[in-house]
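Posting this for the archive.
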Amino acid sequence: MLQMVCLPGLLCDTGVFDPVLAGMDEPAQVLPVPRVASFDAMVAQIVAQLPDAAVLVGMSMGSYLALAVARQFPARVKGLVLIGTTAAADTPRAAALRVKVAAWAAREGEAALADSVADSMLSPARRADPALRATIRRMTESQGVDTFAMHQAALAERPDQTAALADILCPVLVITGTEDTSTPLGAGRAVAETVPNGRFVALDGVGHMPVLETPDLVARHLRTFLDDCLTLEDQAQ
C-alpha cells in the first residue's frame, strides 16, 4: 500500500506540512530532516525510515533529498512531489555564500535569521503576514542556528542530479511559485520536462513556501497526484 512521506525544507520542522495535511484525508508520515552535515548521510537516514512503497513529498531541501532517494532507491519510491526544487548542485559561489550566511546567522541570532527567511522566501504580497512570519520564527527557533549551519554545509556539497533525471521512472509532480526566487520557475520546469513522467504546476503569485502560503491549493494538487499514483499501482498488481 502506498504511503505519503513528507520531507521539510531548510529551517523547517515537521509542522510545516500541517496546513497542507489538514486539507487531506490521506494519512502521511512527516520525517524530520536529519541533523547531520552530510547530504549523503541525510539520504541514508531517510531511506532507513521509508515504507516499502512511498510517495515522497519534499519541499526545498526536502525536495533535493526526495530526488536523491528516488534516484538511488527507485523500487522504494512510487511517486515524487517536488515543491520549490532544482536538480542542479550549488555553484562554487553559491556554496561559499552558504558558509557566509551560516556565520552571519551564528552572529546575529535566530530572530534575525527568521526575519531574513521570511523576507526572502515568502512572496512580496505575503511578507508582512504576521501569522506566516510567526510560523517561520517558531520553526527557526525549533531548529536553531547550529542545525542551520549543518544543513547549509550539507546543501553546499549535494551532487548535481540533472543527468539522473531521465532514469526516474515514477510519476513526478513539480510545484513552483511564480514569485520563487530561490528555485525559479525554470529550474522546476526543467525537472518536470526531463523526467519521463513529469508534470509541472506554477502557482501564481506564490513564493518559495507554497505549503504555508497556499496550503489548500497544494493539498488539491497532492490529492489528484495521489489518486493517479494509486491507479497506476493498482494497474501494476
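The beta strands are 3-7, 28-30, 54-59, 77-83, 172-177, 198-203. The first helix runs from residue 18 to 21.
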